[in-house]
Amino acid sequence: MRLFLSGGAGVGKSTGPNALYEALIRYLNSQPQNDPDDVSVVKVASSGKAAFNIRGNTLHSAFKIPANRGFNYCTLDRDRFNTIRSQLQRMQVIFIDEISMVGSAMFNFLDLRLQQIVGTKEPFGGLSIITVGDLFQLKPVFDNWIFENSKDGYAALATNLWQKYFQMFELSEVMRQREDKEFAEILNRIREGNHTEADIKILKERILNISSQHSTFLIIQYL
Description:
The protein is α/β, with parallel strands linked by helices.
């Protein structure tokens, strides 16, 4: 199972996967061959903030991917391999949030790391991967988009893992602004770069003129 859950703002990219995660945990823990104390589902994200929001770990931390060393693959030494293998030997499903910030080189590294951890040459170690995000949002840092291959060396000839293995499911019903359909449609047009002058005019009509005293109150309240 290799899935990509996407959609614009307010469609449930956070609540939907969270519900799916909880359902998976309950199901896997109910199976007699599984130990509830084993880590069967792992939640990771591309950045520290995103990982904190989902109560998970970063990709680098969870799978011992070196930071700031490029994306040339390096195997784990024996001690680190034994540690991570003992922690994740029962792993079956991986959730990856903010997938737009995971580049193709990073994704290839993850594929090889999972193969090493599980001990198989199957793509991603034969594990189920559920990715969540919006490819209209932030792109990877110092890497290509996940759906693009590197233009350098042999990597340019390699199969793109994202295009080959992942199936997209788009969440389209806006829940956050469901009482204001017009505004939700404006936000979606802005997301796709198809907004009109009329859209901009409507947004400008919603600008608030806040006094300095009121502004200070709002800042204090936010802090």
